[in-house]
Design goal:
about 110 residues, mainly beta, Hypothetical Protein Aq_1857, Chain: A, 3-stranded mixed beta sheet, 2 helices, about 45% strand, CC/Se_fam
């Protein structure tokens, strides 16, 4: 096993009960966490990664984890976190998955 992959395997991913309920309602048992690149007038902005239901298009670009029966794909281009929490966030009448403890430092 390559050294970076071994480090990646120690990542602790938590899924809140609200996020589990959200996935059950959507009848999904897979999600993926991907890097988001936003460029505003030549300056890249740091944003938290996006969390999407389902499987990514290119599985080879993601690490795969199993969390309480949910398959979680984690983008290989993202910084490795020792721990992260997937939760839901309401936006008006809709709800989406998000990482609740991703901190961006400038």
């Amino acid at each position: 096993m390559e050294p970076n992959l071994e480090k990646m395997m120690t990542m602790n991913i938590n899924i809140t009960q609200k996020a589990m309920n959200f996935l059950q309602k959507a009848k999904k048992n897979k999600l993926y966490i991907k890097r988001v690149v936003v460029t505003q007038c030549c300056i890249p902005l740091s944003t938290p990664p996006a969390v999407r239901k389902g499987s990514p298009r290119k599985l080879e670009n993601f690490y795969e984890f199993n969390v309480e029966g949910i398959t979680v794909y984690y983008d290989r281009d993202l910084i490795r976190k020792s721990e992260l929490t997937i939760d839901t966030q309401k936006q008006g009448f809709s709800e989406r998955l998000m990482i609740s403890d991703w901190i961006i430092r400038y």
